[in-house]
Design goal:
The structure holds two protein chains of two kinds.
Chain A (H helix, E strand, L loop, with lengths): L1 H6 L3 H35 L4 H34 L1
Helix pairs in contact in A: 2-3
Chain B lengths: L22 E7 L2 E6 H21 L9 H21 L3 H22 L3 H9 L13 H23 L1 H6 L10 H44 L2 H41 L4
Antiparallel strand pairs in B: 1-2
The chains are: A mainly alpha, B mainly alpha.
Chain lengths: ~80, ~270
């Protein structure tokens, strides 16, 4: 692998970037699933607070998606740097 | 925009095409060439829309407003009571102007980005122009909004506590030997937070529009009508999510700006 890297082949860089994409997506999915599950449990415990819990869940989901897209952008840019 | 089957396809294989900012016309000022891009035009359109529509709708002196004024009052009241009041408490009315401006501006830019102006112009006139595009899909536009938020956070903090008071209260109260580290961390975070505001909005809108463009690009790949039907159905479904994301990202931008303003104007003692 080091020989290939020294030759300037960028295939493994692209493989690494795409694998990083996959890890980021898995981590974000787990985080969002935890938030969704906890929100559902909280609403089940206290249905009259449903609106506020839904709002908190949606805001937390937006924040997590924020830095997920940040990491995805970096992976994406790596692929395009390697191809150009 | 090509011949044969593809001439009635308003899509392109390249998903970056609807998101890029392209120069629409240039004019020269002295020695410099100023290029006006489609995103500049969208920002100007959003500004003119908000500057004319919002005061007109809010100008009615009715006790119970009707029509567009009612909708804008609903949104403003929600932002003031549910978003700003729990965070800013007594200082709400001083900083609510910035909160409302941020929310309406980001929302208008996001929603104008969902309108396919280039395709509509092509359908009506047959000419390819690159007039419209999602302005928030440009890192410079969201970066400019984040810079404005950065300055407003510090200016409001200095107005509220005075310059010396603001600097003294910048770091939380810790023993004297930890103070330099806390100042260092607080300065870094005061730069990183607006940066994340810009990146979050930019990445969400870019990702959404690229997914839409990729779905439409599948028509160019498969080149038959079944793919077109499935593709357009998928685009309709994802457009609903994109509308939700437009509102949500405007709300998150405003929420975080309000939070940072609250932190800078009255740090926890």
């Amino acid at each position: 692998m080091l020989a290939i890297a020294a030759n300037g082949s960028t295939v493994w860089a692209i493989v690494g970037a795409v694998a990083a994409c996959a890890v980021v997506i898995i981590a974000a999915s787990i985080g969002l699933a935890i938030i969704g599950g906890k929100a559902a449990e909280a609403i089940a415990r206290q249905p009259e607070a449903g609106g506020r819990i839904f709002l908190a869940m949606v805001v937390a989901a937006a924040m997590i998606e924020g830095f997920t897209f940040f990491a995805l952008l970096i992976c994406f840019m790596t692929v395009f740097w390697m191809r150009s | 925009m090509r011949s044969g089957f593809l001439s009635c396809v308003l899509a392109d294989f390249n998903p970056f095409l609807p998101i890029e900012s392209r120069p629409v016309f240039t004019f020269s000022v002295g020695r410099w060439e100023v290029a006006i891009s489609n995103h500049i035009i969208m920002v100007t359109v959003a500004m003119l829309l908000l500057v004319t529509v919002l005061p007109l709708a809010a100008m009615s002196r009715r006790q119970i407003p009707k029509g567009l004024g009612n909708l804008i009052e609903l949104v403003c009241e929600f932002l003031r009571e549910q978003l700003a009041r729990p965070i800013l408490r007594d200082r709400t009315d001083r900083y609510i102007g910035f909160v409302w401006t941020a929310f309406f501006f980001v929302l208008t830019l996001n929603l104008l980005g969902m309108v396919p102006t280039e395709q509509i112009i092509f359908l009506l006139t047959g000419k390819e122009t690159h007039i419209g595009g999602p302005a928030t899909a440009n890192i410079w536009v969201t970066g400019a909004m984040a810079v404005v938020a950065f300055f407003m956070i510090h200016i409001y903090g200095i107005k509220e506590q005075g310059l010396w008071g603001y600097i003294v209260n910048f770091a939380p109260p810790v023993p004297w030997w930890l103070k330099p580290l806390m100042y260092f961390l607080e300065i870094i975070s005061s730069f990183v937070r607006p940066f994340t505001l810009a990146i979050r909005l930019f990445a969400n809108i870019v990702a959404g529009h690229m997914v839409l463009a990729t779905f439409l690009g599948l028509i160019v790949v498969f080149k038959n009508y079944q793919a077109a039907v499935a593709s357009v159905a998928g685009v309709v479904a994802i457009s609903f999510i994109e509308l939700l994301v437009a509102f949500l990202q405007a709300y998150v931008f405003t929420l975080l700006s309000t939070l940072y303003i609250g932190l800078s104007t009255a740090p926890e003692h």
